[in-house]
Amino acid sequence: MPVLNGRPAGEALTAPLPGSIAGRWADDLPRRDASAANPERSLKKARPGIFQTCANPGCASGWLHLWRSRATPVLEGGWSCSAACTAARVAAAVRRELDARGSAEQNHRHRVPLGLLMMEQGWITSGQLRQALGEQKGAGAGRLGQWLVRRQGVSEQLVTRALGLQWSCPVLPLEFYDPEALSALVPRLFVDAFGALPLRVAAGKLLYLGFEERLDPVLALAIERMTGLRVESGLVPGSQFRLAHARMLSARFPRIELIEAGSEPAAVHALSKAIERVQPAESRLVRAHECLWLRMWPRPQVGPLPETASVEDLICSIGTL
Ligand SMILES: [Zn+2]
To answer: Closest Cα to residue 73, out of 305, 285, 292, 225?
Structure first.
């Protein structure tokens, strides 16, 4: 049985075979009931289309691929029949992500300066603002809000409220914060480098994403596209944020591989190679700032959150990005 070529028999149940052949072989296969006891396997088996066609529009293998023993890998819902087809699909996804650069970033709105906004609200005096600005200038560091809190006795809550007005976003509470439960949503690198903090998932659909001083709409969009959850960004008061951030960074995160590619073709090669190695049941590619983020699910995800141990991330930066 050449199509079973080295794969475990149970895996072959998911192979994209013509109906009649699949039915006949399924009868011959041992452990065919394994899927009943394993909901994940059933899910995988239930992927639509017995006549699975290769998702690469330029696929040259025609009907040949139906005889190949692959049910994976899957990229963005589409199965590819060969390493060449995987590479073609990855190349298209990488191009799409790079072409979209700038569209989210350009969406800047003019923001009222924080000090002015707080003064208008009557939360600080012009004297406090002048002094804080002077100290910030003298030190050549620190944000205005920090100077207002440190030296002018302004409450941190008030500064966060003002930042919330500035960004037109809510101030998020930290109740029910459970870093271990949420660390699978975002690579540790993003929590660390971009200061994004997954705070809570509500109703299995909505992810509250906390930031300390400024939102990051580009990253929020990337996380939304990757997780399928609607992301609501908000601010968390500085001292609370820093504690929660430290707790999150010590949580367990999915396995990650970091790659620096010298060019776009090199990135495509590295990403395709990873997909061919892991043979994921699903994978997605999004861009977050200067990084391409590939996430692979070796098994289909059950529920709104991935399991930390069951997803693999690859973050690829391209030299020319
Ligand atoms: Zn193909």
So the answer is: 285
